[in-house]
Design goal:
Blueprint lengths: L1 H21 L9 H6 L17 H4 L6 E6 L3 E6 L6 E7 L1 E8 L2 E14 L2 E14 L1 E2 L4 E3 L2 E12 L14 E9 L2 E3 L5 E12 L7 E13 L5
Antiparallel strand pairs: 1-4, 1-13, 2-3, 3-5, 4-5, 5-6, 6-9, 7-8, 8-11, 9-10, 10-12, 11-12, 12-13
Length: about 230
Amino acid sequence: MRSSLVALPLFFSLGLLVAPKLASAEPMAEDPKIAATGNANANSPALPVVSVNSPSGAFGDQGQLTVSSDSSLSVSHRTFSDSDLSTTEITLLPAVDYFVVHNLSVGGFVGLDYVKAGSEHSTTFEIGPRVGYNLPLGKLVSFWPKVGLSYTHASIGGTPRQPGLSTVGPSGDHVALNIFAPLMFHPVTHFFAGFGPALDTDLSGDGKSTTIAARLTIGGWFGPWRH
């Protein structure tokens, strides 16, 4: 938990840098300054000039819908040289985000994690909303931090190898704070990949845990679709 206290100020300072821009965010297509200059950062003079026709500058327009996978899809099987125990894990975490105004996104994610170790197995279901803000930094690069909350339910079945000691993790219900701050790479229009720090910390439940990690996101975007 001590390591999370060191990381929290960094994440919250990123949020403080982004928050003042949210109030002045306007749709790109309706912003005369952006339309006149062709600069996606016309309302943010501290940021570099990024053409709205570049892959990064085109990302984040009002009405865009993104579909991505945070932490990606993974299927793994592990064996141990000094034990006959093997573990199998399947993880899926798809996410959808919608840009309600220029660069401001709201969305959510659903996660499923299955772990089997010997005769013991666990299934974890996770769902939650989040909000993010995209900052174009160059023709192919942007910064898209997101913060949200998640509800997690974990159930365990089978018999532990040692009585009272689970190999696949704890069971129960948790509400957690989730922060993900990836640096995004846009090699072509409509496709992106990102990598950056992530923080997940439990706010409720017994046996609270905190995870600090570096995660990958891959996806694409469609639209814009406006009403």
